[in-house]
Amino acid sequence: MPATMVDVNVSDFEEAFQKLKSEVAHKKFLLFLADKDPASSLSWCPDCNVAEPVIYQKLTASSYKVAVLRAFVGDEATWGNPAHPWRVDPRFLVKGVPTLILWENGDITGRLEEDEAHLEDKIDALLK
Question: Fewer CB within 10 A of the end CB, N or C, for the chain?
Fold first, then answer.
């Protein structure tokens, strides 16, 4: 079943997050990613370049209705700031990108970070 994906950055995140929470979907995910270079369409983050295709393949192949809020953290310098809003937000405390979060019943119930976000068996476990 196709996944519904919405792209946001820090400035428009809250409104989109509220919509995600009210979305009628069996599984709701937040995917924190590094920004892409417009010239190459690749992220500055090597882990994001590896994980994204695997994550999208798994989420869209799910038999469930899946909603994904793709939150782009900014360029490398912006993300490198220890005070980045998503690094310090107590709801998420994102340490690295990519980070895939399963959001259920108003809380994080599953999380894959950086070098584990591309592991198919771990993504499958979030989809169960």
Answer: C
Scan for tokens 């994550």, then name that residue: 55
Structure tokens, 48: 């994001």
Q: What is the pLDDT of residues 82-126, one digit of tens each?
A: 999 999 999 999 999 999 999 999 999 999 999 999 999 999 999
Three-state secondary structure of the chain = CCEEEEEECHHHHHHHHHHHHHCCCCEEEEEEECCECCCCCCECCHHHHHHHHHHHHHHHHCCCCEEEEEEECCCHHHHCCCCCHHHHCCCCCCCCCCEEEEEECCEEEEEEEHHHCCCHHHHHHHHC
Active site residue 33: no
Q: What is the CATH number of the domain that holds 23?
A: 3.40.30.10
Clarify whether 45 is annotated catalytic: yes
Confidence of residue 1 (pLDDT cuts 50, 70, 90): low
Q: Which amino acid is at 45?
A: C
Catalytic annotation, pick one of 45, 94, 97, 100: 45
